[in-house]
Amino acid sequence: MDPTESQPLRHRHVVALPWPGRGHINPMMNLCKRLVLRDTNLIVTFVVTEEWLGLIGPDPKPDRIHFATLPNLIPSELVRANDFIGFVNAVHATLEEPFEKLLDRLSSPPPTVIVADTYVLWAVRVGERRNVPVVSLWTMSATILSLFLHSDLLVSHGHALSEPSESKEEEIVDYIPGLPPTKLRDLPPLFKNYQVFKKGELCFAELPRAKCLLFTTAYELERKAIDFLTSKLGIPVYSTGPLIPFEKLSFENKPDYIRWLDEQAETSVLYVSQGSFLSVSEAQMDEIVEGVKASGVRFLWVARGGESKLKKAFEGSAGVVVSWCDQLRVLCHVAVGGFWTHCGFNSTLEGMYSGVPMLAFPLFWDQILNAKMIVEDWKVGIRIERRKKTEVLIVRDEIKEVVKRLMDRESEDGKEMRRRACDLSEIFQGAVEEMGSSNANIDHFIRDINNTT
What we know:
Belongs to the UDP-glycosyltransferase family. The protein is an alpha/beta fold.
């Protein structure tokens, strides 16, 4: 079924427009898969750049989801980290016109609704010109959205526009609705990324004009922030998460890394993911490698780039290095007992769904607050951090000790952390059961789509 061909009028047509980045595309695709599974009368056109269509690859998807492409007018995914503000400017400046032309070609049936990433600045105004309602999908935590919407409070308290002293970093921010009391050092440093944040503010200003707001989180995880935002924004808010690929978990085929996990003792393996966008310096990576080796812990390390170098560095060690793996399948394997993560929100949700304690190693933006919530609020992880602010690197001995502490199944702290992780896993798995909060909110959202004229 192709949306450019004639379809029965009873079909509703969702146009999905993710921000061009893996951490945004994946949850948008997971949402679309959930939508077409819940309603057989929905079809989806999933819009990405030509480059991203090639990067997505042949991942299985329902027949009623089709791809459409925009031209490669923005910096490549391979280099966007070199000039991130330039990348943001390009998305905001160059993709609006080709997207609007694409909408004109999607005529049978015409688009019923556009589901756009919150960071796509021009989505709402395109929808208004074309008389197509626009829904906003927020792919980070609800808690950090409340923080961003209250940046004026950070400014008025002297917590936003300049680099804080070491003593000021210890001050508690307890005045943001939906945000648990948090030290300033555990919030994204707006003064460092102020240009990026100001771009974000333009997008946040568009939220009240959207038809509704969708979260990828589970309502039970961030109840206070979601309830507050529901009252503040004046539009319907639906928590559709955890928006992770749990429905595709398959045990029919067994790649080599799964066969290796099958041979390991229960909860004995540390899964290490260095993320898909930002990474660390070469010197820091050397310390991480040596620290993990010295811990003696078995590990499965996914290396997106530099796989051969890492394999050489880990020769004779107790682990396996791969270039790619099915992360959620790995995390749900009984052999995995810990998850080294940069704390991107998608990975955070997958870690919680699987019930695996996390070793939090944030690098950038929302990862910093996610790490704090993992360790202090949800109490399902340990944070790797410099002992002193003046330290340039987290050294191998520190890494060795924190890895051993995370993987210690006998300590009282370790037992309590695993109990909390199991409790959250049960909550997450309950959310996506037939009568759970995720499906209830998705069904409510679909009813809204079907009532759109």
